[in-house]
Amino acid sequence: MFAGRYLWWMLMGIGIFLFATLSLDYITWLMIQLSGCGDMAGACEPALRLISGVLKPACIWTAIGILFMATLLRLHTLSLIWFWGPIVAIWFVAPTPILLFIAADAAALTQPATLALLPVAFLFLAAFVTYLMFALVDGDIPLAASVPLRLTLRLTAVYGALAGVAFMRELSRIAGTLLDMPALSVVIALAQPYLQTVLTFGTGSMAPAYAVLAAFIAALAASLLPHAAAPQPSRSAIMLRRLRR
């Protein structure tokens, strides 16, 4: 998936999520007022169940699915799917519970305490998907520009993925329920505190995680500099390069 198409699908997914979060409740209220069903007790309940219980969750999961699949297809186009695919999957899973909570209660968007609950994995994901919107070309990938830069990006990305696993409170319950393995829930619940201690270097503070995030963002920005200065290869040159492979 090329950069322009990727950007279009990402904006589409974000638009659907914002529609379900911010606009659907107002549309529901307007429908109730126009239909007049509020004058009869229980008359609006079927419509409310349909919108809140079916339509809204469907929009939210559709938006998340569009964002996830667009990112994977973009990574596939750039030949980065094997390493970055699993990491991106963890980054998508980690903030999903809090995003669902925000989508269910739009007022939470204005509460600093709720936004503070967003996991650091969400910030890694936001930085990475923004980076993928640049017009990178298959076969000329800045992520592979230099060994030190590639190593920095991969180490910080792995840290971000581990942080997503360590600080996701619902992970043990979700994993045990989906896989029908209660023992796995116990193992994850016991392992998470130790992993948190390792990732925070025993401080119990999120400062190390944000420092690694800053290094990740700086490495992404640095990886774009040679690419921005270099001339873009022509389409015929790209096709010739692929034929040689």
Percent of residues in beta strands: under 5%
**Overall pLDDT level:** 78
N-to-C CA distance: 20 Å
- Structural class from helices and strands? mainly alpha
Q: From N to C, what is the helix and strand string?
A: HHHHHHHHHHH
Layout of strands and helices, then pairs:
Blueprint: H1 3-35, H2 45-77, H3 81-93, H4 96-104, H5 112-116, H6 120-132, H7 147-166, H8 171-179, H9 182-199, H10 207-229, H11 235-244
Helix pairs in contact: 1-2, 2-3, 3-6, 3-7, 6-7, 6-10, 7-9, 7-10, 8-9
Short description:
This protein has about 240 residues and is mainly α.
Characterise this structure.
With 245 residues, this protein is mainly α. 76% of the residues lie in helices and 0% in strands. It is built from eleven helices and no strands. The chain has helices spanning 3-35, 45-77, 81-93, 96-104, 112-116, 120-132, 147-166, 171-179, 182-199, 207-229, 235-244. The longest helix is centred in the first third of the chain and has 33 residues, at 3-35. 22% of the residues are buried. The model is unreliable at 228-240 (pLDDT under 50).
Give me some keywords for this one.
245 residues, mainly alpha, globular
